[in-house]
Amino acid sequence: MSNSLRRVPTTIITGFLGAGKTTIIRNLLENPGKRRLAVIVNEFGDMGFDGEVLKGCGLESCPEENVVELANGCICCTVADDFQPALEDILSRQPPVDHILIETSGLALPKPLVQAFNWPDIRARVTVDGVVAVADGDALARGLVAHDMSALDEQRAADDSLDHDNPVEEVFEDQIACADLVLLSKADLIDDEAKARALHLLEHSLGASVKVVPVKNGAISHEVLLGLGANVEDEIENRKTHHDGEHDHEHDDFDGFALHLDDIGETAAFVERLEAVGALDDVLRIKGFANIEDKPMRLVVQGVGARVQTHFDRPWNDGEQRGTQLVVIGLHGLDRVRIERLLLA
Questions:
Q1: How does pLDDT run across 144-156, given as a tens digit for each residue?
Q2: Is the pLDDT reported for residue 20 higher than 60?
Q3: 343 CA to centre of own chain
Q4: How many CA atoms lie within 13 A of 120 on its CB side?
Q5: For residue 324, which phi and psi values (nearest 5 degrees)?
Q6: Entry pTM
Q7: Where are the beta strands (DSSP E) in 187-296?
Q8: Whole-number Å distance between alpha carbons of 42 and 23
Q9: Could you tell me the domains of the chain?
Q10: Percentage of residues in the chain having pLDDT higher than 70
């Protein structure tokens, strides 16, 4: 069947901040099972970090032009202006795309996104093959949906003026409730007992017959992840979530901003400053790229709470503007001045 007549399957990959979505997608791009892939990355903030990581793969199965970034808010709120044109662009590519991956913002609610696939012009061209939720196994084993949420819980419980319903937990539970498959990431960091605790926390949000698959180092076979054939848009209304009927905007409880810093002189001291920022109660995630003086390669920075990971991913390209750019994501009302002061110390 020609690409113009068939509906192209699309996999939505959702998951909380730092769960490992980009790593899983990158590994999938390297082993696509003879599929030609395209990726839509829905970033939170004005710097396309995850898209840049995926564009750097240099793979024939997903060339750089097949990675599309949408950074103007959640996809479901910008269907006509951003999402539909992005799909049309991808579907016009030659050779044709066999499968589309959508990496949502870590703060996204998957149900409104799936509902957007029922727009007539979209429904005629693509179908939701499956919703895959990535859950941080290391955090869940410690009873958290993400790194270092206990301080946030204590702060909310102590303040009677705050809404004690935890929106972070509700977002996480909605992601699991909408999933056709759950990937328990970072399984290499936990033992069997810890894995059992993580699975127990997932159980009450899982839909009927939904499987949980442990993933080590982001490696997952295309045979497991793609080709689920769920046609989720046809029955998404049956997946009950906390936010049914009240999707004003799921980002209202969160905030984020981009920073441009001078070149970094010494990596270890820079990481210490990043860890200090990540330890703040209202900071959830730090990610970006850094230019280390006297180093020819770009340093990738990914921080979840006070846990910061770095690695050099590729040389700076000829003519590319070298620099240090970071995105900080956290709860609404982030203290930007304090964060900048810590990073510049």
A1: 876 545 433 443 3
A2: yes
A3: 24
A4: 0
A5: -110, 120
A6: 0.67
A7: 211-214, 254-261, 283-290
A8: 15
A9: 8-238 (3.40.50.300), 254-344 (3.30.1220.10)
A10: 77
